[in-house]
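Figure S7 source data.
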Amino acid sequence: MRIDVVSIFPDYLAPLSLSLPGRAQESGLLEVHVHDLRDWTHDRHRTVDDTPYGGGAGMVMKPEPWGEALEAVTGRGAGTTNDATDGADPAGPVVVVPTPSGEPFSQAAAAELAQRTHLVFACGRYEGIDQRVVDDARTRWEVREVSIGDYVLNGGEVAALVMIEAVVRLLPGFMGNPESLAEESHGVEGLLEYPVYTKPPEWRGLEVPEVLFSGHHARIARWRRDQALRRTAQRRPDLVARLDPDRLDGRDREV
Ligand code: ADE
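Tokens for the predicted adenine complex:
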């Protein structure tokens, strides 16, 4: 997979060379390129923003540098269109625009993005990017405006880091033990993960639940599922409502 990130604060993306994405890059699974949007300005002040039409507070990011930047990093210039064979090509780039007004990011969205070979993150600042940038980009590439939660950040950079980490750990061959992907919160079962414990068996007067020492795999699995169901019901009733009834057994319903 190739990931391009365009931002006016490329230094914000420095963590991409650390830890998880860093490891993926070393192993050759991932190639990350971070770009400064101002490289596509042509005035002395390298201007990227201007006042909003219609008035109001703050500044809006100008369309021209964004248009050129997206063309450069996707390798597709003006005049190309997103026709039926083209835009639907899973190998084509996906332009991801982090914004609090986007569709909610989720594990399912991360899994979809992990199937693609080229992601381009367009990180806006201020009051956002001139809407024509997204409207124009949609005619050439698949574009997803995505929010990582119902709160407002200063820009899309941190949201891009969040999404990139969620996607990169799903790349085939990246995780040491792919089974752990299925069991974790928001995995295939749609439940939050059960609580986990390690040594020592007692710490500050708190004991590890007895069943985990039993060596009885079926009982341990049942206990973990009960805990996951209880946690999900308490913390995320919205997720319980979305559980697949075919995946629930009689005991699940008692919990
Ligand atoms: N930019 C600012 N706030 C954001 C959010 N919640 N999600 C994605 N991008 C953002």
